């Protein structure tokens, strides 16, 4: 068998993530309603702050919470009680072990036992992402854990050089067209797109039909069949 490398995204590929953000946003909207703040205007400002953080490679739940607080301050609703309520809800939602999707661990074990080289590559705030990796009980299945502040063509090229990957024998598995699929495929690696139930709006991007090294699977568990067929 060829020496095959498989790199896995983490959030919304191995475990639930965006739906937790959606719950946090719904909670924020309730605060807006209770305090008679124009929801449309406030959500536009929240998105603005989120985008500005993203440009600085500052994203994830910690920075999203900060963006909420900034938005409330702009609308004159930044007393300690409200800000503490936001922080408390953040801690309640995010300070818990990740909910690993059904079948993920079994699939990873299967692929590892078949001799595939497994790597994990996640984007975000290092302490938060590393904590999730450790609490997922999946860490030992990977040769290396890669935590980065961005995922683009340059980063994928650097990873291929660092680990001496043969690109045509390397696969990136993820749910984000913008971060996982398109830049990996553009380097010459293969990419396996597994759409998630929910996707952060800043991660949307159209996948070009010209990229023939992109494969789409409807379920993570179908990776067994896919790699058995190589």
UniProtKB/TrEMBL annotation:
Pfam families: Hydrolase. InterPro entries: HAD-like_hydrolase, HAD-like_sf, HAD_sf, PGP-like_dom2. Coiled coil: none annotated. The keyword tRNA-binding does not apply. Keywords: Hydrolase, Magnesium, Metal-binding. GO terms for molecular function: metal ion binding; phosphatase activity. This is HAD family hydrolase. It comes from Muiribacterium halophilum.
